[in-house]
Amino acid sequence: MTVLQCFVGRRELCAAPEKSFGLALIILITTIIVKEIAIYDPRRNPPNWTELLAANQYAVFQHETNSGLHISPGGSFSETCLIFDTLEEAKSYCAGRVEQAPDITCEIFDQSGRAKDPVETYVHRSVDMKQRSVFRSRFFWAHIMTALAVVGVLIDWRSDFVRMWPTILGLKFLTLAILFYAWGLAERLRGRPFFKRFN
């Protein structure tokens, strides 16, 4: 049973496909047909996906969280998106998809396209926790390095900068702090819509 068959309000059944045939039939009855289209197709008229969306429709983009490469619903590397008739259908699909494939990020866009931030972004809980942990740890060490830099300059200042080595050491700590701040911020922003527009 694929995610496309069982995402609509029945995610608890997706996790247990061995349940009875009757429940599976309920899932199939509640299946909502979605359309998979290429993001850009020069042979199509119109070629851009945004021009195929009605005002009330939403597109779901999927990509690998680490690499940013586009993924099709079947798991292959393909630059396609799914078209849903309502936002709730798109949300239900994304929630089920990231549970099934934790390494996938789902984004929902409206007719405005990727010129704007996604309406919703879905990642697996474990990925979200890991990203938050990395961000906090790098900023923690950046704070430590900044404090050491300040201490080094203060020590040298009290001696009228005669020693000089505390200042030099402090500047090295400050350089490391800037690197940790930049590293943490890059992890925080990686995968945000601003960066994905250039993928």
Write the layout of secondary structure elements.
Layout (H helix, E strand, L loop, with lengths): L2 H4 L4 H4 L6 H9 L5 E4 L19 E7 L15 E5 L2 H14 L3 E6 L10 E3 L2 H34 L6 H25 L3 H4 L3
Antiparallel strand pairs: 1-3, 2-3, 2-4, 4-5
Can you describe what's shown?
α5 packs antiparallel against α6 (165-189). 47% of the residues lie in helices and 13% in strands. It folds into two domains: 34-123, no CATH class; 126-196. The chain has a five-stranded antiparallel sheet with strand order 1-3-2-4-5, covered by helices on one side. Residues 5-30 and 193-199 have low confidence and may be disordered. With 199 residues, it is of the alpha+beta class.
pLDDT averaged over residues: 76
Strand content: 5-15%
Number of H- or I-type helical stretches: 7
Task: Give me the side-by-side strand order of the main sheet.
Answer: 1-3-2-4-5
Query: Helix-strand pattern, N to C?
Result: HHHEEEHEEHHH
Distance between the termini: 31 Å
